[in-house]
Amino acid sequence: MSFNSIRLSFLSSLYRDSLPSTSSYKSATPSVAVHSGLKQQELIDRYKLFKEFQKRILVATDLFGRGIDIEKVNVVVNYDMPSDSDSYLHRVGRAGRFGTKGLAITFSSSEEDTTVLKDVQSRFEVSISECPEQIDPTTYLNA
User: Residues 103-114: pLDDT tens digits?
Assistant: First the structure.
């Protein structure tokens, strides 16, 4: 992924939310994690860091799956598949808003994940394909 991208990554549990943030920190990519275990002020402070582009990656549980509008989010990564097609749509809908392009990457590892993806494709008349070896940055970054 290009460093110029703004990413929002989703995990299903509090335990796993530190993993991508930690690896991003080691690679010097400015990231922050949010989850329901944070006090409200800390949650707001971390949200502002991402919204004001001081952090380029936000790792979140479903707490931020709906209702947040942040400009320039062009990549959403679902490390864990949401439990239903509505949640999937709300998560991936965070990318490509406000006139930007968007890309969603979802890791699928179980029959339950496959069922959700099939439901998404039939309900919303979209085709979700496997991730290619290389992703052309022009598919998710505006020129």
Answer: 889 999 999 999
Q: d(Cα 83, Cα 128) in Å, to the nearest integer?
A: 17
Is 123 a residue whose pLDDT tops 70? yes
* CB count in 10 Å sphere of residue 135: 14
Per CATH, the number for 6-128 is 3.40.50.300
Which DSSP string do the residues of 47-105 spell out, in sequence order?
HHHHHTTSSSEEEE-GGGSSS---TTEEEEEESS--SSHHHHHHHHTTSS-TT---EEE
Cα dihedral 85, 128, 31, 59, rounded to 10, equals 20
Instruction: At 101, list the tokens.
Output: 């392009």
Q: Which two tokens stand for residue 106?
A: 């979802």
Which H or E element spans position 109? none
Q: How far is CA 92 from CA 38, 40, 140, in A?
A: 24, 25, 13
